[in-house]
Amino acid sequence: MKKQLIIFTVIALVFLSLAGCQSKDSVGAKVIDIPLTQEEYAFGVDKSQPELLDQVNAFIAQIQSDG
Fold first, then answer.
1. Taking the CB of residue 14, how many other CB atoms lie within 10 A of it?
2. Among residues 12, 29, 37, 41, which is most buried (max CB within 10 A)?
3. Tell me: the pLDDT tens digits for 10-60?
């Protein structure tokens, strides 16, 4: 009996969670122009892997151009 109650509760919670995600009020994403962190990041690449270095540099160039 307890297992059936737990299963029913889990199914109901999943259903209600998914139904809540389909709200008509949320039109889309909103971009905010507030810096969320002041952290700086670095990438380290082994000198014996020039292909990986090229991929990392291409990725950095892409994210800098995208903003």
1. 10
2. 12
3. 998 888 877 766 666 656 777 788 888 888 888 889 989 999 999 999 999
Amino acid letter, residue 53: L
Number of domains in the chain: 1
Query: In the chain, which residue ranges form alpha helices assigned H by DSSP?
Result: 2-21, 50-66
Count other C-beta atoms under 10 Å from residue 56's C-beta.
Answer: 14
Distance CA 44, CA 7 (A): 48
Is the residue at 67 inside a domain?
A: yes
How far apart, in Å, do the first and last CA atoms of the chain sit? 55
- As a whole number of angstroms, the longest Cα–Cα distance in the chain is 63
Q: Does 7 fall in a domain?
A: no
